[in-house]
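R.M. (postdoc): so does anyone remember the format we settled on? I'll just put the structure tokens first.
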């Protein structure tokens, strides 16, 4: 039976791929993507060939092979935060693998330590990815599968985040430790919420790492390979004088035969992954709602053209309808209030058959566009439809006229609507994401389910030129108040330096390194990734907000 389509004609396009500007934008985007591909290869290489060879001699598989074996054949794996730690002193990828994949027909979040990187130790970036994994499982109600092989906390990390000095030798260690442990709280909460947690222990799981299997619903251990203990033989010797070895103290067979910590004893890694798949297959996991309702026809306009839409410096505007036309089913889009508040485009589309409300920027938010957004968000909550936010804005418009028109009041209405909305939010930042506009367009801080960015994205409190200019004005004012001569030449150098620093800090790679999003997308993959996420969010009932807080009208 043919599924219905939205009863609107396809969007028209005004893109001309032959124009010099388009070709220049495309080349710049491809150059960025080439750099990102190199970094992803670096992340996949983990600790390098020597580390892989050392693991192979012990009969261990690379972390990505473990995950690949767990997934259903020919099913997708959506890797998240793959470039964590880029530009830091840590290995790109952060020493762990995070993503969503299908195991035994069930969408699961998978978090895996990469033992080729400092023994799978818990670095700051691993910690961020681990917390993100648990949040994804919680928000979307999907099983949490962990592949554990971790030496525990990275003791090389100082409390100020620097490497090369033991945490035990620095001040503030007590405070640092006292704030830790939220991972375990969140894992227990998953089970309390009836979200299954499955743990496969591939190697050492020591100290705090021992609580990962200790707080999981199901544990698979590997004979003569898995080791779980609060303190290894050296620490036990120091603490108690007791002589022990790894197997008798915390080996897989002891934990399955004696302590009862393990439910399943595998012969090797492949056997362990098989058992993991069997566990997921018996979870009786079902999505509460219907599947896609609309025809998932590909866009009428070529997604390849997404590469040439955005100028690297973000100086030229982009009609967000051109983006929508290349991610929506059949390029069909029913626009809402098209003539009012035109700097924000709102309307309905379907993506891979899933109906969504779309909000996309065509300039800064003004009072009318903010008011329109609040109205549109409420409508989608009324009919239980997820929202997709396409960000490219410099924030809210400022100035006397906008203040008198109620930019604060109406902007707050929009942020109120975003905050109280309970349908899933998916956010893609394809251009600028500055100031409070980031919040109003459902940025990461506003509990959206997923946030992705294009290589062209820039994220900051304001544009680099504006930041540098504001600071210059402040310095000029200070000089005037003190009655001293203002040094124009020195100020120009400071402005140039600040602008360069702010520009570098706003770039997509800087943002994704800090795990402030779920990863950088090839623009051509936007539709596919949104489709995967729209499937994942349907593991929870899609229900709009029953009420809102007070709107300042």
């Amino acid at each position: 039976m043919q599924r219905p389509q939205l009863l609107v004609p396809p969007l028209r396009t005004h893109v001309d791929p032959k124009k010099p500007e388009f070709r220049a934008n495309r080349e710049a985007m491809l150059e960025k993507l080439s750099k990102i591909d190199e970094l992803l290869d670096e992340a996949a290489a983990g600790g390098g060939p020597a580390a892989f060879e050392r693991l192979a001699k012990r009969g261990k598989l690379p972390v990505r092979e473990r995950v690949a074996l767990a997934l259903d054949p020919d099913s997708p794996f959506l890797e998240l935060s793959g470039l964590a730690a880029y530009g830091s002193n840590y290995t790109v990828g952060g020493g762990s693998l995070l993503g969503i994949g299908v195991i035994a027909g069930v969408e699961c979040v998978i978090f895996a330590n990469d033992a080729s990187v400092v023994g799978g130790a818990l670095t700051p970036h691993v910690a961020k990815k681990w917390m993100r994994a648990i949040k994804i499982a919680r928000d979307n109600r999907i099983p949490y599968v962990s592949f554990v092989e971790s030496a525990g906390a990275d003791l090389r990390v100082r409390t100020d985040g620097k490497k090369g000095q033991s945490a035990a030798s620095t001040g503030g260690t007590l405070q640092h430790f006292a704030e830790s442990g939220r991972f375990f709280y969140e894992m227990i909460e998953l089970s309390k919420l009836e979200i299954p947690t499955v743990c496969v222990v591939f190697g050492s799981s020591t100290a705090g790492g021992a609580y990962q299997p200790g707080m999981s619903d199901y544990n698979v251990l590997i004979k003569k390979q898995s080791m779980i203990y609060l303190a290894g033989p050296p620490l036990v010797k120091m603490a108690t004088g007791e002589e022990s070895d790894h197997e008798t103290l915390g080996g897989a067979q002891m934990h399955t035969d004696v302590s009862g910590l393990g439910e399943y004893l595998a012969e090797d890694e492949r056997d362990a992954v098989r058992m993991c798949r069997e566990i997921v297959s018996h979870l009786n996991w079902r999505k509460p709602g219907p599947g896609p309702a609309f025809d998932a026809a590909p866009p009428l306009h070529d997604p390849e053209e997404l590469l040439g839409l955005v100028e690297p410096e973000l100086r030229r505007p982009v009609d967000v309808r051109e983006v929508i036309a290349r991610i929506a089913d059949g390029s069909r889009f029913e626009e809402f209030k098209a003539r009012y508040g035109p700097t924000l485009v709102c309307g309905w589309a379907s993506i891979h058959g899933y109906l969504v409300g779309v909000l996309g920027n065509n300039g800064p938010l003004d009072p009318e566009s903010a008011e329109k957004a609040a109205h549109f968000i409420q409508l989608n909550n009324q009919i239980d439809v997820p929202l997709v936010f396409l960000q490219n804005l410099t924030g809210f418009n400022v100035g006397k006229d906008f203040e008198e028109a109620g930019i604060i009041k109406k902007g707050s209405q929009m942020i109120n609507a975003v905050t109280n909305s309970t349908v899933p939010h998916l956010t893609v930042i394809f251009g600028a994401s500055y100031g409070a506009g980031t919040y109003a367009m459902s940025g990461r801080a506003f509990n959206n389910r997923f946030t992705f960015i294009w290589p062209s994205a820039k994220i900051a409190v304001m544009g680099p030129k504006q930041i540098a200019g504001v600071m210059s004005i402040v310095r000029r004012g200070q000089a005037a108040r003190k009655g001293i001569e203002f040094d124009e030449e020195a100020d120009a150098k400071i402005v140039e330096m600040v602008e360069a620093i702010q520009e570098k800090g706003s770039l997509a790679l800087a943002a994704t390194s800090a795990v402030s999003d779920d990863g950088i997308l090839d623009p051509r993959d936007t539709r596919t990734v949104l489709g995967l996420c729209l499937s994942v969010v349907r593991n929870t009932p899609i229900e709009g907000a029953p009420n809102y807080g007070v709107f300042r009208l």
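R.M.: ...and that's the designed sequence above, right after the tokens. Also worth knowing: The mean pLDDT is 90. Residues 140 and 537 are 5 Å apart (CA to CA).
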